[in-house]
Amino acid sequence: MNHYDTIIIGGGPAGLTAAIYLSRAKLKTLVLNQGAIGGQMVLTHEIANYPGVASISGYQLANIMKNQAKSFGTKIKSLGEITELDLQSTIKKVTIDHAETFTADSIILATGGRSRTLGVVGEDTFKGRGISYCATCDGDFFTDKEIIVVGGGNSALEEAVSLTKYASKVTIVHQFDHFQAFEHAIQEATEHPKIDFVMEATISGFYGDEKLGSVDILNLKTQQTERKNIDGVFIFIGYVPNTEFLEGKLQRNAWGEIEVNPQMQTELPGVYAAGDCIVKRYRQVSTAVGDGTLAALSASAYLNDLKSKK
Amino acid sequence: MLYTDLNHIETAAEHQKVISQNENVMVICGRMGPMCIPVYGIAEELSEEYKHVAFYDMEFDIPDAYVIRNIPEVQGFMGIPFTIYYKNGKVVKATSSIQNRQQVTAILDEHFAQ
Question: Is the torsion defined by CA of A86, A37, A28, A99 positive or negative?
Fold first, then answer.
């Protein structure tokens, strides 16, 4: 029996919270998840601002939420990709990996987001061979080496400063003529003797043999490119919502975020969205949990309404 | 300390025993960080599906992790985790940094096909 009351797509804090509420309400609930359960929460070393918990790792909090959802009866299934999706019909349909199809009376989209990549030549080839997206993970591979940090937000500037512990020199490459960061982060980076800046520029290509050896830096004002020898590049250019698979199926804004009302309802009956994939300003575990709660309660009310009409 | 649900390799001797006693082995050598945790999670999930593969992790910073850090296949690597796939004790594939489920299953299906 592959029919559920609700299918939740995404197993981060929003999706798991929705699963806890729905399965505790005795509704048959399936979470379809891609990657590690817990979403971006598991990537946080320490969460110290989650109410009621003094300090916990994201990995541990995710496992508690997962086990809580499973204890109430939620089924969790991992997937490679969604290959077919019907959100329009009264009975919603999700096919995963061209192999297995699940149906439900309602859907909650809680697909979260991921680090943005530059998407230029060589980026995939040299990931882990000179290109990194995590300073604390890979910083020590670049001891006494020259590196570039791409980005101009808080993460880029703070990580650039932290990388000066290892690197001999850090060059920040940023696409605008100003930073989008807190003043203290800007001040710390701009005053640091090991940090240089190349503004209004981006990296347009990565080159090397076994390891990254050089990059092309594109001046966005003059459109001229300069090849620069470099040992490493750290990329911190924000996040993108995981909503590409909804193209043509659901209304999203220019950034790909799903538009919902305050009850987390999308434009489609029985379809809700929650967490980092929706239009909102603040993305925290606690806000995702709140979104997940609202989505679950709204879906629950919708399901009750459906049953009363039958 | 890696607090995953995978089996842990803690010494060079254990590593040798694991790769010599299992035909197909995947070892993820990393830390509890953002690039490594997703790979552990994928391996935990796949261990249910790929019963013919032995899934292990090993802490990157312990001295005995030289058995991973020193193998020729990882000398160009500059991002953790170092994930090593062994067939009959020999390295058949090694990857650096975060990998997604499709990338991992593609390697398992290519090198450890039943």
Answer: positive
The rounded distance, in Å, linking the Cα atoms of A206 and A252 is: 32
d(CA A212, CA A123): 10
Contact across the interface for A129 and B38, Cβ inside 8 Å: no
Sequential DSSP letters for A90-135: SSEEEEETTTEEEEEEEEEE---EEE-----BTTTTTBTTTEES-H
Answering whether pTM is above 0.90, one says no
Using the Cβ of B36 and the Cβ atoms of chain A, whether some distance falls under 8 Å is answered with yes
Query: Distance (Å) from the C-alpha of residue B112 to the closest C-alpha of chain A?
Result: 18
- In contact, A201 and A217? CB cutoff 8 Å: yes
Pairing of strands A3-9, A100-109: parallel
Question: Does B86 score more than 90 pLDDT?
Answer: yes
Residue in A closest to B79 by C-alpha: A128
For chain A, say whether B71 makes contact (Cβ under 8 Å): no
Range from A57-66, A88-97, B54-63 carrying the lowest mean pLDDT: A57-66
As for the ipTM of the complex, it is 0.77
d(CA B78, CA A210): 11
pLDDT exceeds 80 at position B20: yes
Is B72 in CB contact (< 8 Å) with chain A?
no
Are B35 and A133 within 8 A, CB to CB? yes
Cβ <8 Å between A78 and B34: no
pLDDT score at A46:
75
3-class DSSP state of A43: helix
- Per-residue pLDDT at A221 exceeds 90: yes
- What is the average pLDDT across A186-200? 97
Task: Give the pLDDT confidence score for residue A42 in this predicted structure.
Answer: 81
